[in-house]
Write a structure and sequence with these properties.
The structure is a single chain. This protein is of the alpha+beta class. The protein is 21% helix and 34% strand. The strands form 2 sheets. The protein has a 4-stranded mixed sheet, with no helix packed on it. The termini are far apart.
């Protein structure tokens, strides 16, 4: 199935391990060397209209994706793993 970024942005991401709604695809990370999508990024929610910053972004790797459906993307990932990925991505950005 082919899917554009505009179509992905309208699909809700749901974690099948917890049943939690994670949000919608806001950005995509891809490797320019082999032109492969590496992960989907869900931006954190704004706190108090953005005055107090944002919550943490979630990074969903392609290995976590179980099914891409018509309206949703089902992923299978532990909550602790999502938090660890965010921490690791921040450390690499700050170096």
């Amino acid at each position: 199935m082919k899917c554009t970024l505009a179509e992905l942005r309208n699909k809700e991401i749901i974690n099948i391990k917890t049943g939690a709604r994670l949000g919608y695809v806001d950005d995509i990370e891809f490797d320019t060397e082999d032109s492969m999508v590496k992960s989907f990024i869900i931006y954190g929610r704004a706190r108090l209209f953005g005055f107090f910053g944002r919550d943490d972004d979630m990074i969903i790797t392609c290995d976590d994706i179980a099914i891409v459906g018509v309206d949703t993307v089902l992923v299978s990932v532990e909550e602790a793993e999502l938090a660890k990925r965010h921490t690791n991505s921040l450390k690499t950005l700050l170096k």
